[in-house]
Amino acid sequence: MTTEKTDQAVWRYGIISRLLHPNEEDATLQNELTRLASRSFRKPDGRTVTFSPETLRKWLYRYRHGGLPALEDSPRKNLGSHNSVPKKLEDRLFELRGEHPRWTLARLLSQLINEKLWDMVNPSRATLYRFAATANLHRDPHLETDPPARAFAHQDFGQLWTADFLHGPKIRVNGQKRKTHLTI
User: Fold this and answer.
1) Model pLDDT, residue 144
2) Does the global pTM surpass 0.70?
3) Final residue before a domain boundary, out of 71, 103, 122
4) Is the four-CA dihedral 3, 9, 15, 21 of positive or negative sign?
């Protein structure tokens, strides 16, 4: 019984297998990598993808040094841990989420930039997004927002007055036409 990881390794092998057994007529490895990278490949789930020559070169290297198991993706070793997020940054993210539960994560990160706590390089944005996901720092879409504003809704009578002004008909005053304005 094959696993999903093994299926992926076999699929990758199918892409790089031509590179493993070159003919005399074949171009240099770099040219073959470039040629392969210009093609698109259909993944087992049906999506079409392309790969860079460098990705294909890494797969070839991995296969030559570790066989088919080396083409499987290994899980991240630090999965679930965020050692690269400084404690000061973690604490401030939790504070900001408590103060502003409706802010998006992008808005929280923007605030960190404004406060000069994050330089947009270390840790990376992707690391901070992963940290936010595992620490449940994304905003809750079910939080009740402010009630919608209702036009002309006031508690007591007389709190709101409205007026409208219109151009009225011209009337004659001492033989001359004068402009009138209607106030409603």
Assistant:
1) 66
2) no
3) 71
4) negative
